[in-house]
């Protein structure tokens, strides 16, 4: 029997190449190797101020992105979180075994609480428990996430152990699955920060739906380090980030890229990098455009997957409730 994986992305805006290289590209391989459950986590999106504005459109956009990128409903379950209410019911049950002190230590909560001090909601505080429910309700073995989400998976592990200690063996304790290549693509305007959907600077990221002109302009504006040689050096994070992107889309190694641009400057390298990205995204963009013309087909895929997900979730929720003495 294949091991099960669970992962998801919040529908908070267009995905960028960092999302693709860090998550979705891995999922395309994982769906062939594991019993795969992928989720559009719209309930998590609601913890962001004003997230409900245009949420349906964002969910549809993310679904077409997943499918155009190559996720296959015949190989994986692809559904919308809010269409499986068992997630929120299990969240409440898990809340009863989750220490407040553990939640107060969560780095993302502390960071976002500082950023939105006047608008901190309970959903943001309880976010890790809902994420634990997302994972545990499918008896997940492995969770493919970026390094920034490791702490949340560790919390899910803690909650699973606490529940099992309190009520008897019920949930699998999931493991983190992190793959190095492309796991962290950095912002084009600040290589000390991760590329982000929420950055106010549109030139900090390349969206998967950007036009060739937009891609060329963004790469042209991307900051570089001092010096002229095209060499991969972690001490020069801006150039290292661009080489990482080039390598991921071209399948050339960093050393091959260095050799190719020996004696050439940043201008030629950036022009070629933009063209590599444009060429790589062209098939995806064509598929996405076609799917956007078939909303009923996309809706049907999500509904069928939600039924599959709910069948698994209902069974595991029932067991948890029985262990807790609920009718």
Keyword list:
327 residues, Rossmann fold, 7% strand, 55% helix, two-stranded parallel sheet, three-stranded parallel β-sheet, 2 domains, Tyrosyl-Transfer RNA Synthetase, mainly alpha
The gist of it:
The chain is mainly α. The chain folds into 2 domains: 4-183 and 295-323, 3-Layer(aba) Sandwich (Rossmann fold), CATH 3.40.50; 202-289, Tyrosyl-Transfer RNA Synthetase (Orthogonal Bundle), CATH 1.10.240. It has helices spanning 17-33, 42-45, 55-69, 86-95, 100-104, 107-115, 122-136, 150-167, 212-221, 237-250, 254-260, 266-292, 295-323, and strands at residues 4-9, 35-40, 76-80, 142-144, 175-177.
Description of the structure:
By secondary structure, the protein is mainly alpha-helical. It has 2 domains: 4-183 and 295-323, 3-Layer(aba) Sandwich (Rossmann fold), CATH 3.40.50.620; 202-289, Tyrosyl-Transfer RNA Synthetase (Orthogonal Bundle), CATH 1.10.240. Helix content is 55%, strand content 7%. The protein is built from 13 helices and 5 strands. The protein has helices spanning 17-33, 42-45, 55-69, 86-95, 100-104, 107-115, 122-136, 150-167, 212-221, 237-250, 254-260, 266-292, 295-323; strands at residues 4-9, 35-40, 76-80, 142-144, 175-177. The strands form 2 sheets. It has a 3-stranded parallel sheet with strand order 1-2-3. Strands 4-5 form a two-stranded parallel sheet. Strand 1, helix 1 (17-33) and strand 2 form a beta-alpha-beta unit. Helix 3 crosses helix 12 (266-292) and helix 9 packs antiparallel against helix 12. It is globular, with a radius of gyration of 21 Å. 39% of the residues are buried.
